[in-house]
TrEMBL record:
Source organism (scientific name): Dissostichus eleginoides (Patagonian toothfish)
Assembly information from the UniProt record: Homodimer.
Transmembrane segments: none
Top enzyme class: oxidoreductase
Protein name in the entry: Ribosyldihydronicotinamide dehydrogenase [quinone]
């Protein structure tokens, strides 16, 4: 792990929170292992959450019909993105591992963190039509979600009222992180820390500290490679891949399930 660079994108307003403790533990353990750790404390930075034309300095190409993706691609190429975006892009470019630390809000990230994703992961910088998923721009980097829930683990099971956590994680881990090419490490989920005794919270943090000892050596979650899809036919799974998998009990992934049962823990554990 020595000389590796880690970026922690952190979204919680309280320094007394469990999320703050998890972030501090990551900084402490990873620094002790020789990593260079940088933290983007989004609330402290008052990071702007909305993706708007104000993210571009100077003239835009088409003010009458403003298209954020295309305009920010041009601005990135011309060095005209605002300083707060370019600074985060610098941190991301240098990082070997990115950890997103947050409390789960409405089954996803808080708005300020979604704003970081919307504004920092710009077209051209983070992805292109050719460079995405397994052939993505950040395929040499690792990323992971570390978050707290308000609901207990049983509520996020396949039989629980919230539904399967693997399904909840698919849009974030496949649709954002893997889309940009990241090797996605299994999430670190702290189940309902506000509803358990302090001893149990301490045990959760110790588990996180222990995991971080070998974090950068972990294998990533499995996703279906881009070359398994036919770009000439609407990026449908190639027939030979479909046929190869036809007799198997489970689908390929949570999203690409082929009408079969979802592969258990596909978005929560590596090697399944």
């Amino acid at each position: 792990m020595a000389s590796k660079k880690v970026l922690i994108v952190y979204a919680h307003q309280s320094s007394g929170s469990f999320n703050s403790a998890a972030k501090d533990a990551a900084v402490e353990v990873l620094t002790a292992k020789g990593c260079t750790v940088e933290v983007s404390d989004l609330y402290a930075m008052k990071f702007k959450a909305t993706a708007t034309a104000e993210d571009i300095t100077g003239e835009v190409k088409n003010a009458d019909h403003f298209c954020y993706g295309e305009e920010t691609k041009l601005a990135w190429e011309a060095g005209k993105l605002t300083a707060d975006i370019t600074e985060e892009q610098r941190k991301l470019t240098e990082a070997d591992l990115v950890i997103f630390q947050f409390p789960m809000y409405w089954f996803t990230v808080p708005a300020i963190m979604k704003g970081w994703m919307d504004r920092v992961l710009t077209l051209g910088f983070a992805f292109t039509r050719e460079k995405r998923y397994s052939q993505g721009i950040f395929k040499e980097k690792k990323a992971m979600l570390s978050f707290t829930t308000g609901s207990q683990e049983s509520m996020f099971s396949a039989n629980g009222i919230n539904g399967d956590m693997n399904v909840t994680l698919w849009p974030l881990q496949n649709g954002i992180l893997h889309y940009c090419g990241f090797q996605v490490l299994a999430p670190q989920i702290f189940w309902a820390p506000s509803h358990v005794p302090s001893e149990a919270r301490g045990t959760m943090l110790e588990g996180w500290r222990t995991r971080m000892q070998g974090l950068l050596g972990e294998n990533p979650l499995a996703f279906t490679p881009l070359d398994c899809f036919d770009g000439e036919k609407g990026y449908q799974l190639k027939p030979e891949v479909h046929e190869k998998h036809a007799a198997k009990e489970f689908g390929l992934t949570v999203g690409i399930h082929l009408g079969k049962a979802l592969p258990p823990n596909n978005q929560m554990k590596a090697g399944v």
